[in-house]
C-alpha cells in the first residue's frame, strides 16, 4: 500500500517571536497600520518540505498518533490531545503528520487518515494513491520518478513535471464528470465537456485553498475554505484555516469568530486556542488571550504568556494614570502596549485619542480615531467573552471617546448618535462613565441647538445664556465658547467676547473662527497691536483670503496709538545730513527715502501721495531728502534724477526706484511690509 502525506498550512504559534507594527504616533499622517495583517503571528504558511525520501516515509514507528495542533518537534500537551488530530490543520512545518492506524478514531467527514480510509484522489511527494481506471482496476502505485501515470490527481490539482517536485499550475485540474470521450478519473483543464467540473472531496478543496493562501490570494482561499466547510461543516480544521485567511486579510474579529467555532466543534483543539490567544493579543484583550493560552488548565506557551503579562502591565499602568489625569503617561503606556503586539486594538487607539483630547490636541485626537474601522458590534460571537476597558465594554468605550471628540469639534449630531449607541451596547452594566457621556452630549447638543435658534432670531442675550448652559455640562467645549463670543460681539461687550475667544483658543489653539472673532473684537476695543498680530497669523493661515488681507490693512491704518509708542511720525520726516540718513537707514522695519527737488515738477506732483502713504501705512518710516539743500547726501547716494525712492528693510537696502508711478510705489511698500 502506498503512503502519502497531506500538506497543510498551519505554522505553530511557538514560531511567533517577533511582531511588526509601528505604534500609533500621530505626529505623522498615519499610515494604516492598524489592520495590516501580521503574517508571522497569523501563521503565514510555510511551503511544505517535500523530498523523495520523506514523501514515501511514514511517521517514525513507536510514536502514538500526534496532534497536529502542537508545534512540530514538541511533545503533545496531553495524551488526550495527542489522540485528537485534524487533517489539514495548519502546522509549522507545513505538512500534516499521518495517523498511526488503529489508534486513530473514526474520522469526522473530511478527516481521512490513511489510504485505507478510501480511495483518495491525492498525489503527495513521489507516491501515487490508487485511482480506479475505466475497467475498475487500481492504477500502479509508487511509479518511478520519470513516469507520470495518467488519471491521478495531484495535490490541489497539480501535475508534477518529470523528475521534479510538483509546481503550481495556472489552473487547477479537476475530475471531468461529463460524458465526452474521456475515461472517468482523467484530468481536464477548465472542463470542455457538457457538465461543469466538480470536486467531491473537501480535502482537495481545502488543499486548493491552502495553495491560494501560500500565494497571498486570501480572497480566493476564503472562497475555497467556505466550499470545504459547506461540504464538511463539522471539520474544525477548515474553520481554523479560514480564520488564518481572515486574519491575513486584516479581518481579525471575523477570524476570532471562526476560531471560536473551531473550538466549539472540538474543545481540545490546541491550535485553535493558540490562534485565538494570538488574535486576542493583537486586539488588546489581555484577559481573553490569557484564557485561551491556559485553556483546560494546560501549561501555556511561555513566550506568548510573557507577552500577555506585558500587555496586562501596560494596561494596569494606563488605568492608574487615567484615574489621576496623567494623560501624558496614558499616551506613553498605550504606545508601549501597541509596540508589544496589541497593534489592532480599537479600544487602545481610542484611549490614546481620549488622552490627546484631554491634552487639547483635538485634531490629533480626531486623526487618531480615524484609523479605527467602523465598529460593528454584531461581529461578536455568542461564545465570545466581550472584553472591557476601564469597566466599560470595549465597543462602548470606543464610541464614548468618538462622541466626545465629535462634540469638541462641533459635530453634535454625530456625537449624540455615538453616545446613544454606546449606551445601547453597555446597557446591562449601566456603567456610570457611559451614562455620564450620554447625559453630557445630550445636554450640550440641546444647548447648542437652542442657542443657534436664538442667535438666528437676533435674541443675542438669550442665546449667550443658552450657550452658557451647555458649558455647564462640557466646560472644555471650544465651539460653545466661540458661539457665546459671537453673542457678546453683537451685544457690543467686546472684552467678554475676547475672553471667550481666549478660552476657545486655549482649548483648540488652531481654531480659525475664534481667532477671527478675537481680532475683530480687539479692533472694536481699539487694541490695534493685538488686532494686527491676530490678523497677521490669519494671513499666513489663509493667504488667499481677501477679507483677512483687508482687515489687516484696516488694523494697520488705525494703529495710531502704536505709532506714538514706537516713536513713528504721522508725517514725512525730513533728512538733511549724511549722519542722520545713516541713522534712519538702520531703523528696524521698513523705511522709505524720497529724494526730491522743489524745482522738479514730477517731485511736486508725487509729494501729496507720499503724505497719503505715510498715513495709510503707519508702520512704515517715510523720510524726505531735498537734493537742492543736501547736495553732499545726494552725491553720496548717487542721485542723478528725481524723484528717486530707496526702500530699506531691517537696515538693508531692498529697492531703488526712479520716477515710479503711484501704483508701483505703493505695491512695493506693501510687498516689503507684508
TrEMBL record:
Residues 180-194 have a biased composition (Gly residues). Keywords: Repeat, TPR repeat. GO terms for cellular component: cytoplasm. TPR repeats lie at residues 202-235. Residues 33-46, 195-212 have a biased composition (Basic and acidic residues). Pfam families: Thioredoxin, TPR_16, TPR_6. SMART domains: TPR. Residues 50-79 have a biased composition (Low complexity). Residues 605-663 form the Thioredoxin domain. PROSITE patterns: TPR (PS50005). GO terms for biological process: response to osmotic stress. Residues 88-98 have a biased composition (Polar residues). Residues 27-119, 133-212 are annotated as: Disordered. PANTHER family: TPR REPEAT-CONTAINING THIOREDOXIN, TPR REPEAT-CONTAINING THIOREDOXIN TTL4. This is Thioredoxin domain-containing protein.
